[in-house]
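Quick log. Single chain, no ligands specified.
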Amino acid sequence: MARPELNVDGIVLNNPVITDSVRLCRLYINYLQEKGFEINYEHSHGVNTHCKAINSALIKRCKTSKEADGLVTTMRSDIKKNFLNDSAIEWLNGSDKNCFIAWAFIRRYSKLKANNNNMIDIIGVNDQYSFLNITDNPTTHEEAFNFIVYFMDFCNYQLSEKRQIIESIKELITNGACFLKKLNFINEDDTVCVEWSWNYIADNDLSLDFIRPLNNYLKFHSVFSFIALWDVEDSKKELFLLKMKGAWRQKKLRMDNKNNKLINTYISKESKHMLGELMDKKEVTMKKVLEWAIRSEYNKFFNKK
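-> predicted structure:
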């Protein structure tokens, strides 16, 4: 931890900034910089180095120990008023889906604020993103989570409003769980399905201006995020998802049948029943069972392994 320092004029900082929180360090630095303090630090350095830089700036700028100690007390009090504790945010760090839904919620929320001419200082202003060293279009879980943390730390909202945003996100995730389950046909590793799913949403002229996925990982989570945020009646959302799943089934069927030939024939009721039992037992389609049976007999007849 940083220790009290002594400047050349004999000013002792009796109430130094000492913390192991990176978030608080950033807020202290921002607070003092807004008051004209020059603080020399690097984003990549640890909290001890940041605390030392803050304390050095206080001693250098303040004329007396009383002035410096008083400023630290006021700064802590001002920041604490609207500081959202780690426990209120950290639960988002344990789930990619929840984290990206929260990120998309905040991005969409900020867009609405911008349209109403009530812009939050940090959100929607590219210079602010650059200044805070964060991206408004994350490609990893870490970037999305950092965006959420920065938003909660630097937006000009009261603590009660920040808590309400978190509660709204929790409610959104809870209420949307049944709809998100209907997207279980999308496998993140299936890049074709992920790309198709995202394009399906885009092709239906749904509002996507706040989400601009750059890779397969983000497209996958953006599909879930959009469905969670889509503010329509449940019946309309359910119908959309039903049509979407059906459209993918047809798309996949066409892809699977690209090198296949159609055959028409009649079989006995008994054979049809046995075919059905094999399909259930193997949990595969009729096509798979027939191909397996034909290949098995073919190999036996021609002595192939």
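The CA atoms of residues 213 and 219 lie 5 Å apart.
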